[in-house]
Amino acid sequence: MENDNKPNNTAAETTPENGPPSPPPIPEKRLTKTEELQVQFVAMDKPATLPNTIDALLKKPASVLHDLQNGNFGKLSANLLITALICLGVFGFILGLFSGDKQLWSAPAKVVLGVGISGLITLPSLYIFSCLNGLDVSIKSVAGVLASSLTLVSLLLIGLAPVSWIFTQSTDSKVFVGFLTLVFWTIALGFGLSLIFKAARIMGVKNRAHLAIWALIFTVVTLQMSTSLRPIIGSADTFLPTEKKFFLTHWFDEMSQIAEDAENGVYRR
């Protein structure tokens, strides 16, 4: 027998036709959240009309912030103010339907006043905290960010208003309607505050602890305003209360009163 000692070449040989193997593709660099927001921080691609402002605030809020800080403050802030007034007024009217009568006008007025006064009260502290973070900003630009945030809150509330309307017409429980309104306010406020944190990222803020403290202050102020302007849900003999109360005390007192009325067979709305 013939001994075959030839090597067994099973591996594919590199030929000039095939060439050397291609190197693996270089992975694309993923942008950080801050870089993504900075990319979106460009001018609005449509004129600053009222519908376009609402559309941009919902879809591309960074473009609204850009235009507020770059020469279109007057027109945009007017659009934001009109939108917030209408949306908050309508949401307040829906809450007023629970009791009817004079609450149909007093509840919208109180909702608008409560949000507006809360914004004015906390604007100086937001400006100060922004400066403490090392930002070279004016109070005008900070006011624009806050106005955008509150307008976004109002848009979310008007989106949830149909759900509120269903329960104001189908239940007599003031506690449940109040709880539902608090849940809706918390949801809307969460989105509104997130816009402020996004604006801080765009401006280069790295330590957002100051803003977190301010967000807590603003939340407590809005809850206290709802008590200071009570009743927004339910009815009363006067437009404003005659007794001062902390909002937590007011909530507990209301629940205790409702439980006592239920035991005595008394109905209040």
Task: Name the descriptors.
9 helices; 269 residues; elongated; mainly alpha
Mean pLDDT: 83
Question: Any idea how many domains?
Answer: 1
The H-and-E topology, N to C, reads as HHHHHHHHH
Helix content: 55-70%
Spans of at least 5 consecutive residues with low confidence: 10-15
How many alpha or pi helices? Answer: 9
* Helix/sheet category: mainly alpha
Profile the largest sheet: none
| Distance separating the two termini | 111 Å
How large, in whole angstroms, is the Cα Rg?
Answer: 28 Å
- Beta strands, count: 0
Note the beta-strand portion: under 5%
Morphology call: elongated
Describe the structure.
α2 packs across α3 (61-69), α3 (61-69) runs antiparallel to α6 (139-170) and α6 (139-170) packs antiparallel against α7. With 269 residues, the chain is mostly helical. Helix content is 67%, strand content 0%. It has 9 helices and no strands. The chain has one domain (43-261). Residues 10-15 have low confidence and may be disordered. The protein is elongated, with a radius of gyration of 28 Å. The longest helix is centred in the middle third of the chain and has 32 residues, at 139-170.
